[in-house]
Every structure is written in structure tokens, then in C-alpha cells.
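A reminder from the course coordinator: this example appears on the midterm review sheet, so study it carefully.

Given structure:
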């Protein structure tokens, strides 16, 4: 194994779980997320010499987001499901597992683009400018998608108001 292969393998082992967490949040589907991560790792491996000294993780995230967008465009499964009162989490909203379930349900009600914006802005903690670059849109689009997504999240899961209160 040469130096490039070793360096890539080391990097991939270190970052694979973080990329998988991001992909699961983007897709809401563990199996699709695993496929996306493999595609992203293959794309990074193919360009490793150029990316090694730069930002391979940023490139991998970009691959995750763009391939996920391509997938939902192809399948047109942008059916936004409204969460009715019977499906809302009724248990103690301070319990971590209940909050996670409520958040997962609320995220499922977003369009894929809104979900990508929320994940990149608030989970990956990327600034608007970088989110715009990853998604290939303007910063204004990121702002408007963020605003719409947060409004939808607040409506779908009022029990998460304390989490969403400071987000803009």
C-alpha cells in the first residue's frame, strides 16, 4: 500500500462515522445514508491527491448533499407529510429520547432541500456562505430555506420550542 492509500484509509476510518451521522440526518434513512457515505468516500478516494492537502471532509459533505438532492429529484418523493396531533410526542419532552423522536418526526416533514439546509447550518455548524456553496445556491436561498424550515419545525413540533427558539 502506498502513502496515498494509507493516508486516505486513515482519513476515511476517522471520518466515516461523522459522515454517516450527517447522511442519516440528511436522508432520514440509514440504508440510503450508508450508500451515500460509500459514494462520497469513493469520490474522495478518486481525488485524494488533490484533496489531501485541502479539505477532503468539505468535499465529502458536498458529495453527500448533492447526491442526496439528485436522488430525491429523480424519485420526486418530496411529499411533505404533516404530523397530526395523534402522532406528536406526548411523553415528557425533556427526556432525550422523546426529544429525538420529536425532532426526527419534525425533520421528516421538511422538504429535502430544507432538511439539507437545517442539517448543514445547525448540525454541521456551517456558516450560510458555506452551506450555499455546498448546495450550489445563493446565500439568500439558504436564508429563505432556513426561515421556512424553522417555521415548519416549530409548527410540527411545538414541544421543541426551547431547541428552536434561538435558531434563526
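Designed residues:
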Amino acid at each position: 500500500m502506498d502513502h496515498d492509500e494509507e493516508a486516505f484509509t486513515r482519513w476515511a476510518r476517522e471520518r466515516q462515522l461523522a459522515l454517516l451521522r450527517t447522511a442519516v440526518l440528511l436522508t432520514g434513512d440509514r440504508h440510503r445514508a450508508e450508500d451515500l457515505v460509500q459514494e462520497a468516500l469513493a469520490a474522495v478516494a478518486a481525488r485524494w491527491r488533490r484533496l489531501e492537502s485541502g479539505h477532503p471532509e468539505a468535499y465529502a459533505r458536498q458529495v453527500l448533499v448533492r447526491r442526496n438532492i439528485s436522488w430525491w429529484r429523480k424519485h420526486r418523493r418530496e411529499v411533505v407529510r404533516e404530523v397530526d396531533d395523534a402522532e406528536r410526542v406526548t411523553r415528557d419532552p425533556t427526556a432525550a429520547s422523546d426529544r429525538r423522536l420529536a425532532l426526527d418526526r419534525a425533520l421528516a416533514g421538511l422538504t429535502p432541500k430544507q432538511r439539507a439546509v437545517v442539517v448543514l447550518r445547525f448540525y454541521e455548524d456551517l456558516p450560510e456562505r458555506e452551506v450555499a456553496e455546498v448546495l450550489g445556491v445563493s446565500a439568500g436561498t439558504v436564508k429563505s430555506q432556513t426561515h421556512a424550515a424553522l417555521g415548519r419545525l416549530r409548527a410540527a413540533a411545538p414541544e421543541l420550542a426551547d431547541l428552536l427558539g434561538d435558531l434563526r
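Residues 81 and 152 are 11 Å apart (CA to CA). The two ends are 48 Å apart (CA to CA).
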